[in-house]
Here is the input.
Amino acid sequence: MKTPDTPSRFPDNFSKAMIFLLAALFLGVALAVPFYYETQTMWYKTGADRIMLRAGQMAGLFALVLLTGQLLLASRVGLFEHLYGRTRLLRWHQANGVIIFCAVCSHVLLVLAPEGFDNLPIGKKYWPEMIGGVLFLLLFVMVVTSRFRSWFGLEYARWRMLHKPLGYLCLVLAFLHVRFVSESFARGLPRTVLIAVGIGLALFIGLVQVLRRTPGRAQSGPQP
Ligand code: HEM
Ligand code: HEM
Here is the structure.
């Protein structure tokens, strides 16, 4: 594992270009899923409703990809810190948090609008949508308590104690929501890739956390 003080085998610009290409590829593949693995919900939609649902699906996938990036930005991966520096990573994390919430707001509006706001997916049968609802509220709390921490008079240590576990819970809820709410991810390659990415991310972040506890690594980052 690359640490800030050991020289990298690849020139930094090459590593940065590789990371950018991988991120762009991941986003491109995710946004293509609704087109290649169309949901039955699209079959009965025409005109504006069809465009709204499609846009809503893509906004949801955009939020999901940014959410995976959000945790990579915050979990202090040695290579990223070496290439971009901790302060810049955190600035991107802070800005990305707000972008995620905006993407999720448009997802919810665009997915629910075609069905009508008088027909909200509430009830036992709609547990996957309701997980989405809990996730929506959690993201709102995360962004507002981070952006306006001093306004709420929240001490940094107390804020961090809340922010970190809620952040990881958001990722788990997002993967659960997507796996069970969308037919695109109910079977076949999209389901396999979604589960593999979820498990891979959990293992990677787990490894980073363990390595972070190796002696000599600083524990907390600069305050927001
Ligand atoms: C009130 C909150 C939410 C509701 C009611 C909701 C509802 C839905 C519904 C009904 C679908 C299936 C759309 C279809 O294919 O017909 C869906 C898909 C999806 N949702 Fe949500 N959602 C919510 C929050 C979220 C949040 C917070 C995320 C953030 C990551 C998210 C990410 C996704 C993704 C990635 C899909 C799959 C898109 C696809 O079908 O291809 N949703 N959501
Ligand atoms: C979508 C919403 C967000 C999610 C899911 C999220 C998730 C996380 C997670 C999981 C961590 C802990 C990483 C670790 O140490 O292992 C973290 C750290 C952090 N987040 Fe967020 N975050 C979000 C939004 C924000 C926003 C909007 C801000 C600031 C305005 C912010 C500021 C920070 C800071 C400063 C840390 C570092 C804390 C420290 O290590 O001392 N986050 N975030």
